[in-house]
Amino acid sequence: MPKFQLGDQAPDFTAVTAEGESFHFYDHLKTDDRFHLLVFFRGEWCPVCNEQLQDLEKHKETFRELNTHILAISTDETANLAKMKQSSTLSFPVLSDKDQEVIKAYGVYYHDDTYYDDHGSHGEPAVFLVDPQKRILYLSVQTGPFGRPSAEDLRKTIKYIQKTLR
């Protein structure tokens, strides 16, 4: 698993949107020079994940004011993510990393039921803040569903980082 230092370059990746389209992170950054909040979540079936994503959606205007774009990423199936995105009316991209390439590149934990049964195999929660220069300026990587930062925690963190950024 990669271990990042603050300021390390965020890995490039390709994933599939909930709508079935290919999404290339670095290509996206060429046309979108905002900060990006990469939010890894377990899957459509996870109530804690749904709560977190709905909280981010509820505060989307706050993130817009902070010049920050949200990207949600899961190892769940595209069809499940499409259903979740529609039922939760999420306005930000929701990406499927079914082949686990993105979570491996970012060092996100993967649960495979080796030690305990927890809804099958899936990626665990993580959050990365990437600036327009592709630098990782914040990260939070979890080994289970609880303890992830709230939208308010992220707002404070992003605001602080942007204020003190060199």
UniProtKB/TrEMBL annotation:
Tagged with keyword NADP: no
Record-annotated Thioredoxin domain positions: 4-163
UniProt keyword terms in alphabetical order: Antioxidant, Disulfide bond, Oxidoreductase, Peroxidase, Redox-active center
Active site (record annotation): 49
Keyword Disulfide bond: yes
Organism: Fictibacillus marinisediminis
Protein name: Peroxiredoxin family protein
PROSITE patterns xrefs: THIOREDOXIN_2
GO molecular function, one term: peroxidase activity
